[in-house]
Design brief:
Elements: E1 22-26, E2 29-34, E3 39-44, H1 55-63, E4 68-72, H2 87-92, H3 96-112, E5 117-124, H4 127-133, E6 139-147, H5 149-155, H6 160-165, E7 170-176, H7 188-193, E8 197-202, H8 209-212, H9 218-238
Parallel strand pairs: 3-4, 3-5, 5-6, 6-7, 7-8
Antiparallel strand pairs: 1-2, 2-4
C-alpha cells in the first residue's frame, strides 16, 4: 500500500527557490521558520520530506500574511518516493506516538517566539499530523491538501473514525480527483466531522498537485492559485 494514489505527481526539484526564512534546531530536530506573530501555523510536509517541491515557498508565502510558520523535519533529512518498496515500513515508523515529542519541541519553540494560537497544514503524508494536531486545545484550524491520512491510518492500524471524533477545530480538505473516497462529500470524514469540515474538490488535479504540479500548465496554475487563496482565507477567518 502507498500513501499516494496511482498517477500522483512525482518529486519536484524547486532548489532554485530563495528561502526567506531561517533554519533553526531544537535538540536534533531541524525546522524551517518563516514570519513571526502570535498566530502560528505548523506546516507538515509530504512524503518527499523537508526539501520537497514548493513546500518552503508556500511556508514563506503564508508567513508574508502575518503568520509565524514552522516546517519541522520529522524525517531528519530522509525522504522516500511513493514507489519505493520500503514505503509501508517507512510510514509505520512514524505513528503519532513517535512524532509527539517532536510536536512538543515545535510547540515549545513557537511559544518561546510569542505564539499563542495555532493552526496546521498538511500535504499528503502531512495530513495525518493535521488530524492529530487538531485534537489539541490550542489549535483553531487544520488544512489538508490532497490528504493521505486514510491510507496511513490503515497501515498504522489506527481508527480513522476515532481520529475524526477527537478533532476540536475547523477543517478544510482540498481533495484531488484521485484521492481517497473518505475525503469527499458523503465520505467518512464529513459524516463524523459535520459542519466542522469544509471540502473543496479539485477534480482536474492529481494527488500532489499543490506542491509538485508543473505550473506552466494552465489548469495546474489555476488550481494551485485557488488552493493558496483558500488556505489564506481559511486561516485568516479561523485563527
Amino acid at each position: 500500500m502507498t500513501c499516494c494514489p496511482p498517477k500522483s505527481h512525482s518529486f519536484l526539484d524547486n532548489s532554485e527557490y530563495q528561502c526567506q526564512g531561517t533554519f533553526e534546531k531544537v535538540d536534533d530536530l531541524e525546522m524551517y521558520v518563516s514570519g513571526s506573530g502570535e498566530k502560528c501555523v505548523i506546516w507538515n510536509y509530504d512524503i518527499f520530506g523537508f526539501n520537497g517541491g514548493r513546500t518552503r515557498q508556500n511556508v514563506d508565502l503564508l508567513a508574508s500574511y502575518g503568520f509565524m510558520v514552522i516546517l519541522p523535519d520529522y524525517y531528519r533529512g530522509f525522504f522516500i518516493t511513493p514507489t519505493d518498496p520500503g514505503l509501508a515500513d517507512h510510514i509505520k515508523n512514524y505513528p503519532y506516538s513517535k512524532l509527539e515529542p517532536d510536536v512538543n519541541r515545535v510547540l515549545n519553540f513557537a511559544r518561546s517566539r510569542g505564539a499563542k494560537v495555532f493552526g496546521s497544514v498538511g500535504t499528503c503524508w502531512g495530513s495525518y499530523l493535521v488530524i492529530k494536531l487538531s485534537a489539541l486545545p490550542d489549535f483553531k484550524a487544520g488544512i489538508s491538501m490532497h490528504p493521505s491520512h486514510p491510507k496511513m491510518m490503515m497501515l498504522l492500524e489506527e481508527s480513522e473514525e476515532d481520529a475524526y471524533r477527537q478533532v476540536n477545530c475547523k477543517q478544510l480538505f482540498m481533495s484531488a480527483g484521485n484521492d481517497h473516497e473518505n475525503l469527499f462529500p458523503g465520505g467518512l470524514a464529513e459524516k463524523i466531522l459535520g459542519d466542522k469540515l469544509t471540502i473543496e474538490e479539485f477534480p482536474d488535479m492529481l494527488h500532489g498537485w499543490s506542491m509538485r504540479a508543473d505550473l506552466s500548465d494552465a489548469k495546474n496554475k489555476r488550481d494551485v492559485d485557488r488552493a493558496v487563496n483558500l488556505y489564506l482565507d481559511f486561516f485568516q477567518n479561523n485563527m
